[in-house]
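Q: Convert this sequence to structure tokens.
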Amino acid sequence: MTQSELLAMLEETSFPVAYDHFAEGESPLPPFICFLCPSSNNFAADGRVYFKVSEVHVELYTDEKNPETEEILEAVLDAHGIFYDKSEVWIESEKLYEVLYSFEMEVDQNG
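A:
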């Protein structure tokens, strides 16, 4: 999967989506999604990267706990066969819940 394919998948939720963050002053009203690929877990063979794997964080932000909103994102991930781990935190300074979905994806080396 390429980063643009990941973006297109997340846009299926109909929530605003950005890589890492929205520009200062351009953050939409919740719910919205930010995603990033903070690290890799590549497979090596013969002293080189044989199989590229990216760790992916998909952050769903809401102003109140909203299981229905989470279900929308989870339905998209499930439909694409994504196995994910989920955690959440209240961000006091932003007055937002962040529900984090973490998973790994094979990086399409041809796209």
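The beta strands are 17-19, 32-40, 43-45, 48-51, 53-62, 85-91, 96-106.
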